[in-house]
């Protein structure tokens, strides 16, 4: 049981580091891996704030991945999901200028 916990924490730490990478492709790949884990039923809700930080990007594919993640976990973390509304508004306002 202990090795599994260690491996899970190590994998989660690795995902966090990749999500915060300065390279756009590495961030996108990290979010793809989080989405893949989510779709097979693994709990990746602990990465909620880290994934949502990726929303502030010009990369449309990355934004779509973040939206997919948000839709899935907004029910379990409504307070944090509510804070994302401000980011949506900013994005819309910047696009309309």
UniProtKB/TrEMBL annotation:
Pfam families: Adaptin_N. It is found in: Endomembrane system. Residues 7-25 have a biased composition (Basic residues). The keyword Endoplasmic reticulum does not apply. InterPro entries: AP_beta, ARM-like, ARM-type_fold, Clathrin/coatomer_adapt-like_N. GO terms for cellular component: endomembrane system. Its main location: membrane. GO terms for biological process: protein transport. Residues 16-91 form the Clathrin/coatomer adaptor adaptin-like N-terminal domain. Belongs to the adaptor complexes large subunit family. This is Clathrin/coatomer adaptor adaptin-like N-terminal domain-containing protein.
């Amino acid at each position: 049981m202990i090795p599994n916990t260690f491996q899970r924490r190590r994998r989660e730490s690795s995902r966090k580091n990749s999500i915060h990478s300065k390279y756009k492709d590495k961030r996108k790949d990290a979010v793809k891996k989080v989405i893949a884990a989510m779709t097979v039923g693994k709990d990746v809700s602990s990465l909620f704030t880290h994934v949502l930080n990726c929303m502030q990007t010009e990369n449309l594919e990355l934004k779509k991945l973040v939206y997919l993640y948000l839709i899935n976990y907004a029910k379990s973390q409504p307070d944090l999901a509510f804070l994302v509304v401000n980011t949506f508004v900013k994005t819309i306002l910047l696009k309309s200028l």
